[in-house]
Amino acid sequence: MAPAKTPPGALTPAQIKQYERNRKKEEVERKKLLQKAAQKAKKITLSMVNVAPVMRPDVDVSEDELEPLQAKAEQGDAAAMVRLGHYYMMHVEPREANVAKAGKWFKQAAETGDADALAWLGLYMRMTQPKKDVAEANGFFRESAEKGSMLGEFFMGLVTERGPEKLEWYEKAAKRGFVPAMHALAEAISEYNYYLVPSLKNVCVTPDAQAWGLIAAGHGDFKAYGVLMQEGANFAGSEKERPYVDYKKLESYGQKQIELIKTLKYTWYGSNFDCRLMIDRFSWGGPRAYAYLTAYSDAFMVLYRQKKNEAPFFKKFHDEITKMADAGDRDAMLVIVKAAKNWSFFFPFAKTPCPFKAEPYESKLKEMAKSDPLIPFLLAK
Questions:
Q1: Angle at 328 between CA 324 and CA 331, to 5 degrees
Q2: Contact 261, 295 (CB under 8 A)
Q3: Cis peptide bond N-terminal to 57, omega within 30
Q4: pTM
Q5: Which of 34, 63, 268, 302 could link 89 by a cystine bridge, Cβ 3.0 to 4.6 Å?
Q6: Cα(381)–Cα(377) distance, rounded to whole angstroms?
Q7: Element (H or E) spanning 338, and its range?
């Protein structure tokens, strides 16, 4: 009798044995790497105990500060020039004139050789001319970083391709207390493991990444909670391969993230240094509106992975945002308009149809635009 043929697509006994050997080898490698990551996590936590956090640069300018700030800038004060640049970036009308004024002050500040000013000039170029002079802008980031600026180190992390160098730049800024770099480092470690370390692909957030995420979250960084939630939200593999996930903890992270967003300030580069705004001035309608949608999207993915009933979640989302919008919150109105137009983008696996209607909120925003020149740009994104 002729031996039975292997059905097309099926594995031969030899292939099955090889697969099992590879799987066991990968499991041993995964345990070793996780042990090393756990040791790193302890060192990270201990080393950062006495490091003062730096949440965001102080670049906000009130109207009564403008005249004395102008005087300092004209005397050659680089920090004053940078703050003037931020002032004009925030005041978008007349748009071209003020963006040009901002650029003038950032360039003059950078010409003094100030390390932070070089970083801000690079960011200005990336945000106002995203398809032009990228190499020149990145050169300013590198010069800034090499002069010891945390901003320069952080921006170098942003523009460096996935790999060890990206982690090194973020780590330099994070170890000096720059909180946005901490959450960015946590995310970069997770991405590095997922894409470049086969045995860690189904872990998502290793202990060292968790350590940086928890430190950033402890300092009030809402994006850090989103990184920590990836363990339950983003996972490529069978449930058996998944490490133990504390979903109650992840759900609490989601709620903390949403509560923190309510306290955010608005800046032209994005609250809490939202790196996604680097090449798009106002992203999906302003940093806080985009942050709300991202936070609810993260929370939904944790729910989706657990296969829980999604109806109560979307009802709460609708009720909370609608209440804020009806009370006159601009960003809540933007959330409703953006959600109504891009529901499947933010909630691609949702069975629940969008509970929001763009009207009357879009009309209210257009009315508010008469006194808030930012709104037309926010609505256009």
A1: 65
A2: yes
A3: no
A4: 0.83
A5: 268
A6: 7
A7: helix 330-341
